[in-house]
Amino acid sequence: MKIRFKLLLLLLTVSILPLILVQAGVLDSLRSLSDEIGGEVRKELVNKSSVELKRLVEDHARVLSKQRRIVELNLQQVSAELSAWIEDGNEFSLPEVFLGSNSEQGDIERLEEKYEQRDQNMMHGSYVLDFDSVRYTAAHSSSRSSILPYGTSDAVLPLLKAVELKNPELTLWIRAVFNSGESLVYPATTGMRMSMHKTVPIINKNPVPSWSLPQKDLLTGRTVLTASLGVFVKKEAVGSVSIDVPLDTLLHGYNHLDVFSHNIDSLLVRLEPNGNGTSGVEVVAKEVAASSRKSMMHMWEPPSTQMLLSSTDATLFSRFHKFLEAGKSGVMSMPYNGRDSIWAFSAPDARGVSLVLILPHDDVVAPADKAKSYVQTAIKEQYLHTIFVLIIVVLLVSLLAFLLSRRFTENILILARGVKRIASGDFSAHVEITGDDEVGELARDFNSMAPSLREHIEIKSALDVAMEVQTNLLPQNSPYIKGYDIYGESKYCDELGGDYFDYIRPERDGENMRFAIGDVSGHGVPAAMLMGSVRGYLRARTLSGGQLGEIVTDVNRLVAQDTYKTGQFMTMLMVELDPAKSELRWVRAGHEPALIFDFAKNDFIRLEGEGIVLGAFEDVEYSENCCAELKDGQILILGTDGIWEASNKDGEFFGKKRLWDLINLKKNSSAESIASGIFAAVQDFTGRTKQEDDLTVVVIKKENNTQ
């Protein structure tokens, strides 16, 4: 990536990143604030609506109780007067308070509107209402004797008209049914069958008013509750009187529900046994949906089939069920028709019926959602504004980066061209850059680097040649001796090393073989030069003949002259193998003894002997050691100290014991495989990819002739 783009990224990071972080923090805070405020407002609205709905259903329960009491008092009055009428016969007369209740024009219009058919589906033909008479129906069987004074039904008309007039909203039909089969209905209807009326032929034996469940009035289509009370003559029940009360007038005053929502479900429910010892919550009446609440206020309908109330939250619904069983009112939040809702319910009345108002949460919290939406819109606008500002900043920063980068990169481009010249081999490259800044300092370093680089390359080339020369000084192939497997190899830790090994035949046509292995002190070029000198001295001296001790003595004299006052020295071990006798002779010059691995004895034999390092003193005499026998299957190892003195990260040496274990493991392998195994084992033990010392090993394995 070019500097101008790096500079652009730097400027963008410095200028835009803080702005993005600040704006992100602000927007995140606003979102959190919006969610928190919205949540609190929603919670407060739900709580407030719950309290208001609970108060509402409790108020309606109290009003309903008072209205029921009024209806029951009217029933008791009518029942008492009917009892007196039956007992007194033609002598009966109403109290003066009920007299003079004739219908006026305004009352007739009111009554006609009251009894107007509300449900268009309930068509039963034409009929006429007479508000100034009572319809009397005689018994259908002649076997039944009449108990009402014949032809005197108008005697109770003022009573019935007075009841309707005092409580017009609580009275729809007033009916009396007697054991004799006779019946009275107010107001009277003509032009239709009596069966059109929904009568409740219940003869109460207990002088306590009873109430029916909601049911449809077949004439007006309105849903009514029927209150009935027995008529007693001489303490004997002779019939019952009932008043049909419109349900919508009992549950009046719902205009203020629109303050909450137009989606409130209003229900009348009761506990209904299931037959298995439990009970469900049955809906006995429900307020019908209407396109306009003003034109169709509180039209209640009983379900055409049994309808059970339920919720998807079984635990909360069970609590609601227990409240009804305990006869308590309350308010709860639980799902209804897949929506979280507020349930407010009154305590069950004497019939076990409760008023339940169900208000969806969504309608209650609409203001909170609206406020949250407003805040989110403001956040979105702020986000767009931030993006616009960021675009302007990016454009300005890009322009600034472009202008500044040209000034900063001009000298760098000059340096880059100089580097390319050096890469192509032109070490005379020179750049003309002035200045006291870092680029100027880099230019001065570049100009001084080229000559040094040329010198280092020349040295490296010389080292490569020296490494190739030294590699050629070592044996390239292993000698062949019948009955023996021989392999040697050196691995240097640097380009040049001081380890040395060689194979020398003392006689051109002879079978004997001399093995030399040595280790020059130090590493690198000085060690390699001394190693090359010793190789030349040793090979040249061998051509003159003589025993091993004589040869090493003469070589030492020459080496001591070369290393005078340098402090360098070299350890060496020469071993001569006589194949005809399987005999070994050797000379040690400060080198580690050679090792013969005798697997029959589970031990190794050390080729000990005296002799100091080469180059220490000029007049040292070396003597030949004789003789050791190399038996079938035995392995002779000549190595440098880089093998057993190799250490791991804990400072532990590889040692002779691990060498024994390795050769014992690979004793049936070839000499080359054994040497490779030694190198690999040392590297695995040290755990380092680069050697710390030169490694050299020569393996002479006496083959087993019995195989």
TrEMBL record:
GO terms for cellular component: membrane. InterPro entries: Bact_Sigma-Reg, HAMP_dom, PPM-type-like_dom_sf, PPM-type_phosphatase-like_dom. The chain crosses the membrane at residues 383-404. GO terms for molecular function: phosphatase activity. It comes from the Bacteria. Pfam families: HAMP (PF00672), SpoIIE (PF07228). Residues 406-458 form the HAMP domain. One of its GO terms (biological process) is signal transduction. Keywords: Hydrolase, Membrane, Transmembrane, Transmembrane helix. PANTHER family: STAGE II SPORULATION PROTEIN E, STAGE II SPORULATION PROTEIN E-RELATED. This is Protein serine/threonine phosphatase. It comes from Maridesulfovibrio salexigens (strain ATCC 14822 / DSM 2638 / NCIMB 8403 / VKM B-1763).
